[in-house]
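Q: Here's a chain of 116 amino acids. Please give me its 3D structure as tokens.
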Amino acid sequence: QVQLVESGGGLVQAGGSLRLSCAASGSTLSINAMGWHRQAPGKQRELVADISSSGSTNYADSVKGRFTISRDNAKNTVYLQMNSLKSEDTAGYYCKAISHGFLGYWGRGTQVTVSS
């Protein structure tokens, strides 16, 4: 069992930055990949970025060059640095962890609102 808690969301102006954090607890040794997804009202949840246990990363085209995902395995924490934020980045951001057995775990989300 893995528990994920996101933090760092808030209200920022377009062009600003935020850093989201996701702290994992429980059976953290079972975690393989971690990632961030987002969901705006009335829209499907979409992958923003993910990172493997070895540090390999993937990004959605819409955030590439602006967002950076990283992880600190010693702290069982994954981060999402978001720069040059746009209004269309407004969404609930959810942390996800995938176990080595391909089980998925979700955090409850943190809201990011970008004003213009």
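Q: Can you summarize the key feature?
A: DSSP finds no helices and eleven strands in the chain.
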